[in-house]
Write a structure and sequence with these properties.
11 strands; alpha+beta; three-stranded antiparallel β-sheet; 24 helices; two-stranded antiparallel ribbon; disordered C terminus
C-alpha cells in the first residue's frame, strides 16, 4: 500500500531536526575543545617553561658583591651550612600557608621551580642577601607600616634588584625598587647629573610605598598589584581584557608578558626562602659593615674625598651609605641634602665642617667658577694661580677605579684629564691623577699694584702687598683681626666672593706704600732686533726639547 505524501514530509522534517542536532553537538564539542586550549589553567596545574626569570636572579654573584660595596672578606656564617633539603609539595603548601600574610602566597609548579632555584643554585646569594636584610628590611617595614601596606612587600626588592641599591636593568630601571625615570620623577624622586634619588634607599622606599598603594586602589588584589608594578598597569589591563574581564592573576597568567609571568611566583618564592632558609641549611653571612647611623644636612658643595680624609672614614663606606650621589659630590649649594654617616662621626663632621669644606677644595672640586681671565689673555699656569699636573705610572694590577680612589679623584676626571675613551690602561702609561694648584710667588711684578712719580721726579712710590699663607683652623675674621684690617678689605684685595678659604692659599693681608728711587731712562730698543731675538730663543728651545724623551720628564712631587 503506498504511503501518503504527508507521511514523507513528516519523516523528512524529523531527519532534518536530527541532523541539525548532531551538527550543533559536534560544533559544541569543537568549541569546547578550542576554548579549553585558550582558557588559563588553574593555579595549581600551571607548568610554564617559557617564562623569563627576573634579572636579579641571573646576576653574577661576584658583580653583586662589588655593587653591594660591602666587605665580606672577613664575614662568617653564624651556623653550620649543609646540603639543600627537598620537601614534598604538600609540605611547601603548608609552610607557605603558615606565613602570617595578608597576601595570597599560593603554591604551584612555577613557584616550586623558583624555590628550588633559591635553595639550590642561588643559595650563596641568599646567604648574602640575608645579611643585607639586617640593614634594609627594618627600614622597609617602617615605611610600609606607615602607609598601611603588607609587610611582606619588603621582599619585593629581593627579586627586583637583589637588594642592590645601584642596580640598573637593561631598560634603565634603577635602584632597590627599580624605578623607571618617568615613574620615579612622578613620585617626587629627583634625578640629575649628580643625584639619582632612585638609588636613595629611604626616599625610593617612600616612593615605592606610595606607588604600591595607588596600584592597590585600582586592582584591590595584591597579585595584580605586584604584576602591575613589574610591567605597568597598561599591560595588566590588556591581560584582563584579553581574558574576558577576569581579575585574578592566575586566570590572566598566560595573557601577561613572559617577563611578568614569573614575577609573582618569584615573589612568593622569595617570601618562602626568607622565612625558611634554615630548613634548607642556608646560613646568613655576618658583616661588620653595619654600624649605628645618623644623618647630617649639607648645604654646601662637598666631595666624599674631603669628608673621607678629614674624618678618617673609608671612602667606600661613604659611597655605600649614600648611593644616591652618583659622582661622589653632594651639591649642597643647589639645595640641602641629607648625608648618612656613622653616628660616631656625626659630631666630628659638625665641628670640622669648615675644615672639610676647605680641604683640598681645588683638587676635589675642579669646576672653575669663572674663566674670564682666559678671554682676557690671563696665564693658565705658573705663578698666577695656575695648576700643575701630578702623574702616576700605571703598574700591574692597577685599574682606573683603584687609581681614582687612591688619589681622591673620579674615574670621569681621570678619563677627561688623560683623554681616555675607555677604562683600559696599559702598564707603564703615565696618567694625570691630580691638578695641583701653583701658588703665586711674591715677585715685584706681582706685588706692585700702583706706582706714582713724585713732583721732583727723583723718587717714586709704589704699593706693596703683604701676604699670609692660610693654615689649618684659620678664618677670615681671625686673619683680619690679627692684621688689623676688615674682612671686607680682605675679600676685596683677594677677589673673594665668600668667606671660604683653602688651607695653603696665599692671601693679601696688608697694603703698604713705600718710596723707591726713580728708574733711570733706558735707551730705546730696536723692536725689530727684539723680535728677532725672541724668535731665535724660541727656536733654540724647540730644538733642545726635541732631543728629550717625554717619558723621562720629572714627575710632580708626591707621585709614585
Amino acid at each position: 500500500m503506498p504511503c501518503p505524501q504527508g507521511l514523507f514530509i513528516i519523516l523528512e522534517q524529523k531527519m532534518t531536526q536530527k541532523l541539525n542536532f548532531i551538527f550543533l553537538l559536534l560544533m559544541g564539542m569543537c568549541f569546547s575543545s578550542s576554548f579549553a586550549q585558550t582558557t588559563p589553567q588553574a593555579k595549581d596545574t600551571i607548568n610554564d617553561k617559557s617564562i623569563i626569570a627576573p634579572e636579579s636572579m641571573t646576576e653574577d654573584l661576584s658583580k653583586l658583591l662589588h655593587d653591594w660595596q660591602m666587605d665580606f672578606s672577613t664575614a662568617k656564617e653564624n651556623c653550620r651550612p649543609g646540603q639543600d633539603v627537598v620537601y614534598p609539595d604538600s609540605l611547601y603548601v603548608r609552610k607557605l600557608s603558615n606565613i602570617p600574610s595578608e597576601m595570597e602566597l599560593s603554591y604551584n609548579r612555577v613557584v616550586r621551580s623558583y624555590i628550588d632555584m633559591y635553595s639550590g643554585r642561588r643559595r650563596s646569594q641568599v646567604a648574602y642577601m640575608l645579611a643585607l636584610g639586617d640593614y634594609y628590611f627594618p627600614m622597609f617595614e617602617e615605611v610600609l607600616d606607615k602607609y598601611g601596606l603588607p609587610l611582606e612587600l619588603k621582599y619585593l626588592p629581593v627579586i627586583e634588584s637583589a637588594l642592590n641599591p645601584i642596580a640598573v636593568s637593561r631598560v634603565g630601571a634603577t635602584g632597590l625598587w627599580q624605578f623607571m625615570l618617568r615613574t620615579g620623577k612622578g613620585y617626587g624622586l629627583e634625578v640629575n647629573s649628580l643625584v639619582d634619588e632612585r638609588r636613595d634607599p629611604y626616599k625610593a622606599t617612600e616612593a615605592a610605598a606610595r606607588y604600591l598603594k595607588d596600584l592597590y586602589s585600582i586592582y584591590r588584589d595584591w597579585n595584580l598589584v605586584i604584576a602591575a608594578y613589574n610591567c605597568g598597569p597598561g599591560n595588566v589591563n590588556k591581560a584582563i581584557a584579553r581574558s574576558g574581564g577576569r581579575r585574578d592573576y592566575w586566570e590572566i597568567y598566560y595573557n601577561l608578558p613572559r617577563e611578568t609571568r614569573g614575577y609573582v611566583p618569584a615573589f612568593i618564592a622569595a617570601n618562602y626562602i626568607m622565612n625558611y632558609y634554615g630548613d634548607h641549611n642556608i646560613c646568613p653571612m655576618q658583616s661588620s659593615n653595619f654600624a649605628a647611623l645618623d644623618t647630617v644636612h649639607v648645604n654646601k658643595e662637598v666631595h666624599f674625598g674631603q669628608i673621607s680624609d678629614v674624618l678618617d672614614i673609608p671612602l667606600m663606606d661613604i659611597k655605600r651609605l649614600n648611593p644616591q650621589f652618583t659622582r661622589d659630590i653632594v651639591p649642597g649649594n643647589y639645595e640641602p641634602y641629607a648625608l648618612v654617616l656613622p653616628t660616631n662621626k656625626v659630631l666630628a663632621y659638625v665641628s670640622k665642617k669648615d675644615e672639610i669644606m676647605n680641604y683640598r677644595r681645588s683638587q676635589f672640586l675642579t669646576h672653575r667658577l669663572s674663566t674670564d681671565r682666559y678671554l682676557q689673555g690671563g696665564s693658565t699656569s705658573g705663578g698666577a694661580g695656575g695648576t700643575a699636573n701630578v702623574y702616576h705610572r700605571v703598574r700591574r694590577g692597577d685599574n682606573l677605579s683603584k687609581i681614582a680612589t687612591r688619589y681622591g679623584a673620579t674615574v670621569s676626571q681621570l678619563k677627561s684629564w688623560n683623554r681616555l675613551r675607555s677604562t683600559k690602561i696599559p702598564v707603564g702609561k703615565r696618567l694625570i691623577v691630580k691638578k695641583r694648584t701653583v701658588q703665586p710667588t711674591a715677585s715685584p711684578q706681582q706685588t706692585n699694584y700702583a706706582e706714582a712719580r713724585d713732583a721732583s721726579g727723583a723718587t717714586t712710590t709704589k704699593t706693596v702687598n703683604q701676604y699670609y699663607r692660610v693654615k689649618k683652623g684659620d678664618t677670615l675674621g681671625a686673619i683680619a683681626r690679627r692684621n688689623r684690617v676688615t674682612v671686607s678689605q680682605l675679600k676685596s684685595w683677594n677677589g673673594l666672593r665668600s668667606s671660604n678659604i683653602s688651607i695653603g692659599k696665599q692671601l693679601v693681608v696688608k697694603k703698604k706704600t713705600v718710596k723707591v728711587a726713580a728708574p733711570k731712562e733706558e735707551p730705546a730698543i730696536d723692536k725689530s732686533e727684539m723680535q728677532s731675538s725672541v724668535i731665535s730663543d724660541y727656536l733654540k728651545g724647540q730644538i733642545g726639547n726635541s732631543d728629550e724623551d717625554p717619558t723621562d720628564k720629572p714627575v710632580a712631587e708626591g707621585t709614585l
